């Protein structure tokens, strides 16, 4: 599979905010280019059978206006679906999650390359954001994009191997580098250095269990 940590450098990360009704939602944006056509990437992120191979099993009415549920993870409504360009869903975890939505945007670069963007916007309690920062969701999406990249190159892991990989030294190195990069993106958004350092350390420890 090559050097997994090298995958980190293929992703551009941004941290920001946007207004949602009367609240300010925190945003994380990931952008990377895949060596696959837009139709192929679209199929990978919308086909239930394929989503289960690189992310999690998913059920529901998978159409605009329908709903979805990822096994052991988020569920919600499919708010917008414009093949093969844009998918926007609400992202609900727990009984009272507040506002949270994810949007995926695909832009073709010729016939066999696609710019993939994922933006996750959410309103979270300030105490959580100040403890863990944007890396709390950013690291998770880095891991998801790693799986998607493997899937698109037919170099993926079986679900059983993926579970085992998550506790490997290689996975911990990936998480640590991802957390550091999200710390840099947080700093670039204007966060103070002490908060960046504390949240980066806390989030990496949460994901690695150390």
Strand order of the largest sheet: 1-2-8-7-6-5-4-3
Number of helices in the DSSP assignment:
7
User: Could you tell me how far the N terminus lies from the C terminus, measured between alpha carbons in angstroms?
Assistant: 26 Å
The percent range for strand residues is: 25-35%
Q: Tell me the structural class.
A: alpha+beta
The main sheet comes to: 8 strands, antiparallel
The rough form would be described as globular
Which stretches are low in confidence, meaning pLDDT under 50 for 5 or more residues running? none
Order of helices and strands: EEHHEEEEEEHHHHH
Set out the fold topology.
Layout (H helix, E strand, L loop, with lengths): L11 E9 L2 E12 L3 H9 L1 H7 L3 E3 L6 E4 L4 E8 L3 E5 L9 E9 L5 E9 L3 H7 L2 H18 L6 H7 L3 H20 L4 H16 L2
Antiparallel strand pairs: 1-2, 2-8, 3-4, 4-5, 5-6, 6-7, 7-8
Helix pairs in contact: 3-7, 4-6, 6-7
Describe what this molecule looks like in 3D.
The mean pLDDT is 93. Helix 4 packs across helix 6 and helix 6 runs antiparallel to helix 7. The chain is 40% helix and 28% strand. With 210 residues, it is of the alpha+beta class. Strands 1-2-8-7-6-5-4-3 form an eight-stranded antiparallel β-sheet. The two termini are 26 Å apart.
Task: Supply the key terms.
210 residues
Provide a quick synopsis of the model.
With 210 residues, the protein is α+β, with helices and mostly antiparallel strands.
């Amino acid at each position: 599979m090559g050097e997994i940590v090298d995958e980190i450098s293929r992703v551009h990360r941004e941290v920001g905010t946007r207004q949602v009704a009367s609240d300010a939602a925190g945003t994380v944006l990931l952008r990377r280019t895949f060596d696959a056509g837009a139709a192929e990437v679209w199929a990978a992120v919308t086909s239930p059978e394929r989503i289960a191979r690189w992310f999690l099993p998913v059920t529901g009415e998978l159409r605009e206006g329908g709903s979805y549920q990822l096994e052991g993870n988020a569920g919600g409504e499919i708010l917008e679906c414009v093949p093969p360009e844009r998918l926007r869903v609400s992202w609900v975890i727990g009984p009272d999650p507040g506002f949270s939505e994810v949007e995926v945007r695909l832009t073709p670069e010729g016939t066999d390359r696609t710019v993939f963007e994922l933006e996750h916007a959410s309103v979270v309690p300030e105490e959580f954001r100040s403890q863990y920062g944007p890396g709390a969701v950013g690291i998770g999406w880095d891991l998801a994009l790693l799986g998607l990249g493997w899937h698109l190159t037919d170099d993926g892991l079986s679900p059983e191997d993926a579970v085992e990989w998550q506790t490997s030294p290689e996975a911990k190195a990936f998480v640590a580098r991802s957390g550091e990069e999200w710390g840099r993106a947080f700093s670039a958004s204007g966060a103070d250095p002490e908060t960046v350092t504390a949240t980066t350390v806390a989030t990496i420890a949460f994901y690695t269990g150390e």
